[in-house]
Amino acid sequence: MTTIDPRMQLAAALQAQLAAARERARVPQRARAAGAAAPPGAQAAGMAQRIGAIDRGDPDRRRKAVRLYLEAELSREFGAGLLNDPALPLLLDAVQQRMQEDAATAAAVEAVGDLLLSGPAA
């Protein structure tokens, strides 16, 4: 008589979950490789151009510049396809909100915003 060992079922379930997790981990690597097609200088120039296009009279100019920087960094890290994700604006909102909740981080973000806006394209 054969008995069913519950440890075998658990091991099979864990193996399936690990295989799925490995596949999900490979997707960002592929996205990074796809995003590496544009030279870093071109990405920086594009970001500088977008920051320079922010209206100088906009009271929210610093926050918008930091948002463009965050967007560019996430795109560089995870691939340009991320820019087409409809959840990206929500992610950026959440990140910026969290950064503003901590006084030290908020001060650093202001400094980064000022630095971004002081560039030649600004």
Description of the structure:
By secondary structure, the protein is an all-alpha fold. The chain has five helices and no strands. Helix content is 74%, strand content 0%. Helix 1 crosses helix 3 and helix 2 runs antiparallel to helix 3.
Task: Describe the structure concisely for a colleague.
The protein has helices at residues 6-35, 40-52, 61-78, 88-101, 103-117. It is mostly helical. The chain has a domain at 61-121.
Q: Order of helices and strands, N to C?
A: HHHHH
Helix/strand/pairing class, anyone? Answer: mainly alpha
The residue fraction in helices comes out at over 70%
- Overall average residue pLDDT: 77
Fold topology:
Layout (H helix, E strand, L loop, with lengths): L5 H30 L4 H13 L8 H18 L9 H14 L1 H15 L5
Offer a few descriptive terms.
elongated, 74% helix, mainly alpha, 122 residues, 0% strand, 5 helices
